[in-house]
Amino acid sequence: GIQVEQSPPDLILQEGANSTLRCNFSDSVNNLQWFHQNPWGQLINLFYIPSGTKQNGRLSATTVATERYSLLYISSSQTTDSGVYFCACSQGGKLIFGQGTELSVKP
Amino acid sequence: GAVVSQHPSRVICKSGTSVKIECRSLDFQATTMFWYRQFPKKSLMLMATSNEGSKATYEQGVEKDKFLINHASLTLSTLTVTSAHPEDSSFYICSARPGNTEAFFGQGTRLTVV
Question: How large is the greatest C-alpha to C-alpha distance in chain B, in angstroms?
Answer without folding.
Answer: 40
